[in-house]
Amino acid sequence: MINLTVDNIEVKVKEGTTILEAAKKAKIEIPTLCYLKDLNRPASCRMCMVDVGGKLLPACVTHVSEGMEVKTHTKRLRNIRKTILELTLANHNCECTTCEKSGNCKLQTMANKYLTGPGEFEVEFEKGIDNSFSAVTRDLSKCIKCNRCVSMCSDKVGASAISLINRSEETTVATPFNIPIIHSDCIGCGQCITVCPTGALIERGTTEEIYDLLGEDTYYNICLLSHGTYETLAEGVGVDNALMKAKVVDVLNKLGFSEVIDYEEYLIKEMNAVAYLLKENMLEGKPLIYSCSSGIRREIEDVYPEADDLFVNLSKIRKDINTRFKEGYLDRNIDKDVHLTRVENCTAFLPETNETSGIDISITTRQLAKLIKTSGIDLNKADNKPLDNLDYTGVFNPYFLSVNTAYAIIRLGEKASIKNDKGNIKEFSFDLSDGKEIKCAVVNGLKASKEEVKKILDGESEYNFLCVIPCEGGCEFGGGRPVITK
């Protein structure tokens, strides 16, 4: 163990610990902008500079040593951080009052903490907004070149859709050859948004569309809400998870939704279709590849076009289901146009609307949280209401298989036994009623997904069913969840 002092507080930590980690153990906060634990520590923002025996060292990458004496908040360090922030803001579009990240921006929080007025430097920032892709919008005027999004995209997701280009003061974050992001390798997962400390990366706004939709009396608005969104929605609104789950239906009714349907139940219909296709493929001796993200499928097929026949055509299934779903309301004598709004923790669903899926509008839990907060509705005074039932028997044939089979696919870990957990790859198996074993795997990230698809194409895989997911941990940790800087 290594003994040191941080602001005169004695700390004992393991060898290899950084000063930043040692300070956290002593409950001392050292400011950072570019640092992301285990992912991004270029030490480029210099906000974490500390004083070690008169030397200035970046706390995020400097390892502790025996007897080290660290000072974290001297007058000298405060002036350095003040200058760094003033220089950063001189290259930043400070339209904080209308910025999507206002109130939840790390740069804004630090400016409020360390600055007492405008800086001495002339403001000049890079201009340009790329909103070519509805999953992600880039605003160059708010980018501080922290590299967090680049590390997330390349190292965690494996897409490498963006990177740092040019040198010195010309350095910027961009797509290859500065092409529009819709033409890049971006899969729309939105993980870059979750780590961006400013408003440089956000999903393209659809909140105004929702306001317009809910304000029209000619529409019968239905909200599809999954169980996985409750906790993240509660976090975004700032209430208890149990309270959100009890009140969310009444809140959405007051916002203008006529029905709020359990998307989990709705998803079983989708999984029935997938189970049907899996059975067909198994009869032909072929595996089946499933992905809820059209972006990750597109990128895999760009490399391995022969994989197209093995992928579930999810857009076709969803459009068929949603079309039949809307037709079911004709028998209920509803004289309004039925509009479906889907709420997800994922930004990859945002482009999949209207013609592609039959969903009229897709929004993230982050966007819905904003709608709820600006609605003026007091959740504590809202009524407890259950979700509406999904009830239109028969309209989803011919894709019908047993619910157990569908659940086994949709909840592999619940209905199946985990055979092997390899980090990005989790292997499962479950038995059908005829005793046949189905071998499955869930893969996180584009890089690992490409590798597993290649094994399937080369005949080196034993999987009958491969589920590829862009985000580590699944949709609960998607790029559309509320970003909480604290």
UniProtKB/TrEMBL annotation:
List, alphabetically, the SMART domains matched. Answer: NADH-G_4Fe-4S_3
Coiled-coil blocks = none
Query: In its keyword annotation, does this UniProt entry include Lipid metabolism?
Result: no
One of its GO biological process terms is: ATP synthesis coupled electron transport
Superkingdom of origin: Bacteria
Question: Cross-referenced InterPro entries, in alphabetical order?
Answer: 2Fe-2S_ferredoxin-like_sf (IPR036010), 2Fe-2S_ferredoxin-type (IPR001041), 4Fe4S_Fe-S-bd (IPR017896), 4Fe4S_Fe_S_CS (IPR017900), Cytosolic_Fe-S_CAF (IPR050340), Fe_hydrogenase (IPR009016), Fe_hydrogenase_lsu_C (IPR004108), NADH_UbQ_OxRdtase_75kDa_su_CS (IPR000283)
Give start and end of each 4Fe-4S ferredoxin-type domain: 134-167, 178-206
Q: Which UniProt keywords apply?
A: 2Fe-2S, 4Fe-4S, Iron, Iron-sulfur, Membrane, Metal-binding, NAD, Repeat, Translocase
Q: Where in the cell is it found?
A: Membrane
The prosthetic group or cofactor this protein requires is:
[2Fe-2S] cluster; [4Fe-4S] cluster
Domain named 2Fe-2S ferredoxin-type is located at 1-76
| MF terms in GO | 2 iron, 2 sulfur cluster binding; 4 iron, 4 sulfur cluster binding; metal ion binding; NADH dehydrogenase (ubiquinone) activity; oxidoreductase activity
For the 4Fe-4S His(Cys)3-ligated-type domain, which residue ranges apply?
76-115
GO cellular component, as recorded: membrane
Q: Which family does it belong to?
A: Belongs to the complex I 75 kDa subunit family.
Provide the protein name: 4Fe-4S dicluster domain-containing protein
Q: Which organism is it from?
A: Anaerofustis stercorihominis
